[in-house]
Structures are given as C-alpha cells and as structure tokens.
Amino acid sequence: MHEKCPPLIAAYHGMSPEFAGEPAFAGAGAAVLGRARLGRGLWLGARSVIRADGHHIHVGDDFHLGEGATVHIAHDVYPTHVGQNVTAGKGAVIHACTIGDNCVIERGAVILDGSEVADGVVVTAGSVVFPRSKLEAGWLYSGSPAQRVARVSASELASYHQQTRNDLSAGKAGPAGDGAGRGHVFVAPTATLAGRVTMEEGVGVWYGCRLEAGSHEIRIGEGTNVQDNSTILCETRDVEIGPDVTIGHNVLLVDCRVERASLVGIGSRIAAGTVIESDVLVAAGTETEPDQRLTGGKVWAGRPARPIADMTDARRGMLAATLPMYRDYATQFAGTSHQPMLQPGEE
Known about the structure:
Blueprint: E1 8-10, E2 18-19, E3 25-26, E4 31-38, E5 43-44, E6 49-59, E7 64-65, E8 70-72, E9 80-82, E10 87-88, E11 93-95, E12 98-99, E13 104-105, E14 110-111, E15 116-117, E16 122-123, E17 128-129, E18 134-135, E19 139-142, E20 147-151, H1 154-167, E21 186-187, E22 192-199, E23 204-205, E24 210-220, E25 225-226, E26 231-233, E27 239-241, E28 246-247, E29 252-254, E30 257-258, E31 263-264, E32 269-270, E33 275-276, E34 280-282, E35 293-294, E36 298-301, E37 306-310, H2 313-334, E38 339-340
C-alpha cells in the first residue's frame, strides 16, 4: 500500500514554498524546497524533489511527479516552469526549463537547461532533451538527443498520461540523514546512507540520494557534491569519488572511481569498474561500459560513452563554479528547519 505523509518543507534565504492547496499525495521522503509555487492536485512520489534555491519554480495544477524524480533550476540563469496537467515518471529530471500543458515526461527522461517543451508533448523513457531545445506541440520525442518520432493524438496523449501515472510509486524512503550533516558535511534529511560512507570536509549529499556501501566502502573527497536522487552502490568493490567532483541529479554509480575535478552529468549511468579520470565532463544521459576508462581532458557522451570534445577553460570554469554554489546551498539548508507541511487545521 502506498504510504502517504506530508512533504518535507524547507525555506531558502527565508523564502518558503507556496501551495495552492494540500497535495493530493506525498510519498515518504518527498521534499519541496525554497521559492517554489505549486498548483492544486500536486502528486509527489517517494523521494521526489522540487528544489527552488538558485531560481524560482512555478508548477501548475495536477502535476504528478514520480518516485525519485527531480525538479531543479540553473542558478541565476534559468527558472523552471511546469504547466497544467503534466506527468513526470519515476526518476525523471526536469531541469531549468519550461514544460507546457498536458505533457508526459516518461520514466528516467531528462529535460535540460533552457529547453522549451510545448503543449501536449511526450518524451519517452530514458530520452535526453539537450539544452536549449525547442520541442513542438503534439509530438512524441525519443532518443539522446531527443528527436521527433510521431504525432500524438488526444486519445494517445491521454493514454500516455494514464500509463505513466499507473507506474508511479510511493515507496518508503528508508533511513535518512540528519540534515545538519556531520561536522562540515551536509546530508539532506531524505538521503539514505547505509554501511561505511566516508566523507571529507565540504561534502554535500542531497535530497533523495541513496548511498549503499554493503560490505565495502564509499569514500567521497573534499568539496564534492552528490546531487538530488543520485544512487551510489558498492556491489563487489569500493566506490571512490575524489575531491571537487560534481555528481549531477539522478546519476547511478556502481563499483567505480571518479577522480578529482570532474563532473558526471544528470541521469548518467556509470557501470562497474569504470574509471573517470581527473578533468572530465561526462555529459547528461551518458552510459559507460563495464571497466571503461574515461581519459582526462575530454568531454564524454553517448551510450556507450565516447570522447566528443576537448575540455576548455570555459568548461573547467563551469565545473569549478558549481562547487561553491552547492556549498552555499548546503549552508542555507543546513541552517534552516526542515518540517512536514502542516495539514489543514494544524498549528
């Protein structure tokens, strides 16, 4: 049975989320943070995250957000706007973009910064909409990068909504962090840490993350951030993440090593035995093969990953700028109270 509980609420720089009405459903570990404005009929799966810190998020009525899905912004660059009657499946990421009315973002799909998705669009499971894309109304898009595939009729669109909402789950969040972190480490209250997880100064583990070391160890270096709804698993060996690394939203890391000053983009899947060397940018939606080595000084992308460009000073600057930004976010959220949304009649 689905477990319903109030979403976790926290302010950012004194700005708290605004709700047009009580959410229709909130699963265990769901969190709504910062300057978000939410419409009526909001449905939040377990460990889903709506985080409006570096910019605002506006969401229309009847928004369904699946288990482990993430809505976020691009700091001081792009807000996120979501229209009426939008469905986002499990593990989907809506990041710093505009989504029109009646859209369906299927399981594990990623919509990236500056994109504009018109009304009645379907983005199929696992697809990646590249930054600043414009998706035309009434079409089904698929692939990485997402491309037009077919027209979607009104009846087909209704079916996509229903199928995706039927698949939404509200499982349990499991054991969580304490929010204040340990020392100068930030562990969000809805993050799950199990086994030996060693974190150095300035590490941030964000909302909905799941770190499971099993009988091994997860080691995370100084200043690194692991963003919302990412999963790190040890199955047969340790996982090691170096200093000054960014692990984007909804990333999966298994039995691998990420060296210093690299970034693993949103929705990427890093297979067992992978080594990501220093000074690497792994593009959103990338998937590696077991035991693959991603050599330094390159941008890697694709399924499987391949080098597509050299690192530049501009790209390195972007990676470096993410680190203090996330430390500031962590300072704000560690210093504010996290509490469930009050139900009608409560004080």
